[in-house]
Amino acid sequence: MDQFIYLDNAATTRTSPEVVKAMLPYFSENYGNASSIYRLGSESKRAIMQSREIIAESLNADPAEIYFTAGGTEADNWALIAAAESTGAKGGHIITSKIEHHAVLHTCEYLEKRGYEISYIDVDENGILKLEDLRKNIRPDTILISVMFANNEIGSLQPIKEIGEIAKEKGILFHTDAVQAYGHMSIDVKELHIDMLSASGHKLNGPKGIGFLYIKKGVKIRSFIHGGAQERRRRAGTENVPGIVGLGEAVRLAFSGLAEREKKIRGLRDYLISRIEKEIPYCQLNGDREKRLSNNVNFSFRFIEGESLLIMLDMKGICASSGSACTSGSLDPSHVLLAIGLPHEIAHGSLRLTLSEDNTMEEMDVAVAAIEEAVSKLRQMSPLYEDFIKKEKLR
Ligand code: PLP
Question: pTM (2 decimals)?
Answer without folding.
Answer: 0.97
